[in-house]
Write a structure and sequence with these properties.
heterodimer; A: 196 residues; mainly alpha; two-stranded antiparallel sheet; 3% strand; globular; B: 221 residues; alpha/beta; 45% helix
Chain lengths: 196, 221
């Protein structure tokens, strides 16, 4: 049956509208749970607030378990889901740059836009920086292209490329998540509390 | 009292959630696995397989070949020896055992050309058609009767008996003509008309050259 749009249960014309609706809800929840504060995101790195880690880890684990149950029961075909293409070199370098920006600015691209919406000055500057970065990247695209398009591995997942059993991967991933939560809590209790 | 009870339970809320989480994740590992149905749904496959639309006649194929229709690929499913021995012109050879090889998929799994399968009869061709349809390949056809029928109808068409309708004779004429296209020679074609030897020299033809009459002078400048 699923995914709904590729199998024609929902007409493909609706996908933009659905994307907008999901985006609205996503933005609202990010803002409502306080993710539009750069201090909350920075807290992960300084050890006084692990909400971001917990939320995203839980979201990933819950959805992957749900998806595989639905796949098992025949409601959803995992093979039809979109897998983002892997460009190894670009992903590593881009990841490092984004990580640095993440710590320095205290936003990820999504939360920065939420923070722009509620009028945080640091977010305005952060997004301006993103736009400048995008501009530079586009202008020098021919220069960056070998890096951008190099080491293309296709739309692969860990399960595909290493031949792992997806169910064990999910189980181990869940255990890692739980360990991460426990460790995060221990760290948080040791670190001096920051109020913001 | 109730609040206290709730508080007692909620004190362990993280532990409870952890246990639920682990049970669900572990359940995935422990669930008995089953082979998933691949390809198109069973109902579709059944619908397709009952329908005779997949058959294409030898006459149609001959017509397409003669008109050099570029829209289809003829696939010979017999083994290589038979293919080398004789094959319908322009056919490519994909032995039945190599149907799903990487190289073959290039020809079969595309949406630009019609693929026409044939084997000796349509037995293997039907099987190949079924296997490929199940994998949701598009535009597949089967040559009805295969290469045997090709021989019977196109290469060596049988002359209809005299009491048959005119349409049959027309069809025979068409088939005969197409067999000639595919290189069959007929006795009546071979018989050369005897060239009459001429004993006396050809009479000289007197060619009179008419002199052009002078046109009367017309007016004008």
């Amino acid at each position: 049956m699923g995914p709904l749009i590729p199998n024609g249960v929902i007409p493909a014309d609706w996908d933009s509208i659905i994307a907008i609706l999901i985006g609205l809800v996503f933005g609202f929840i990010l803002e409502a749970s306080g993710f539009s504060s750069s201090r909350k995101l920075a807290g992960v790195f300084y050890g006084y607030d692990f909400a971001v880690l917990k939320v995203f880890f839980t979201a990933a684990a819950v959805s992957v378990i749900g998806i595989y149950y639905m796949d098992y029961l025949g409601y959803l075909d995992v093979g039809q889901l979109y897998v983002h293409p892997t460009y190894l070199k670009g992903a590593i370098i881009g990841g490092v740059i984004m990580g640095v920006g993440f710590i320095a600015g205290g936003f990820c691209p999504g939360t920065s836009l939420c923070a722009v919406a509620i009028g945080k000055l640091d977010a305005w500057i952060y997004v301006a920086g993103i736009i400048v970065g995008v501009f530079i990247f586009s202008e020098f695209f021919t220069f960056f292209e070998p890096l951008y398009a190099g080491d293309f591995l296709g739309n692969v997942t860990l399960v595909d490329s290493f031949g792992w059993n997806p169910y064990w991967v999910i189980f181990i991933f869940s255990i890692i998540a739980i360990i991460a939560f426990v460790v995060a809590d221990i760290v948080r209790k040791r670190v001096k509390k920051v109020f913001y | 009292m109730d609040k206290k009870k709730i508080a007692k339970v909620t004190r362990f809320r993280y532990q409870i959630l952890t246990i639920i989480f682990l049970v669900l994740a572990g359940g995935l590992v422990l669930l008995p696995k089953y082979q998933k149905q691949e390809g198109i749904k069973t109902e579709y496959l059944l619908n397709h397989s009952i329908s005779p639309e997949r058959y294409i006649s030898t006459d149609q194929i001959a017509d397409k070949l003669i008109n050099q229709d570029p829209s289809f690929i003829l696939v010979d499913l017999r083994d290589e020896d038979s293919y080398n021995n004789y094959a319908i012109p322009n056919a490519i050879n994909i032995p039945f055992s190599k149907l799903f090889d990487e190289e073959s998929l290039m020809y079969l799994n595309q949406s630009q050309f019609d693929v026409v399968f044939y084997s000796n009869d349509n037995f293997y061709a039907d099987q190949a058609w079924m296997l490929c349809t199940r994998r949701d390949f598009k535009n597949l056809r089967v040559l009805k009767g295969g290469i045997n029928r090709w021989f019977k109808t196109i290469i060596k068409p049988e002359m209809p008996s005299e009491d048959k309708a005119k349409a049959e004779f027309d069809l025979y004429a068409t088939r005969k003509a197409s067999s000639m296209y595919f290189g069959v020679m007929y006795p009546e074609q071979v018989i050369e008309k005897e060239v009459k030897t001429v004993s006396k020299p050809a009479p000289k033809k007197v060619i009179t050259v008419k002199k052009k009459k002078k046109r009367p002078v017309e007016g004008g400048c």
